[in-house]
Amino acid sequence: MSLKRGVVVCLAMSGLLTFLPTTAGQDEVPPGLKGDWSAVAITRHGKPIIPGPIDRITMTIGKDELVLVENGKRSKAKYVVATGKSPAHIDMILKAGEKPFKGIYELKGDVFTICYSPDGERPEAFRSTEDEKTTLIEFRREKN
Fold this sequence. Notes:
41% strand, Lipocalin, 2 helices, globular
């Protein structure tokens, strides 16, 4: 799987695909989650992605929409969070009728970490090993 496909699948958004939100379990998005973020580390199936391409991946999180910019290409997606869970849940859908990509996320100050699985199983921990089909991405808040 290519780096672009891995990142696209990981965030469940692509310039070629429109994503629809689920509504079950939607919570108010924490104010600290909203804003501009830059990817600083990506691990897929236990393998770190080289830093060069990561420098060109940014994300803006709004109330119910994510905007991903990768190599100058802008993509929009809808997302749903459940903050009452521990760790907090985030679900994304590629197309209506498909299983959601289930993930967990953590927000600590200016660090936003997301771990997701494309197989419909929500990860239980923030890790990505060779045996797991999970992707782990760490973002840092952009300072304007």
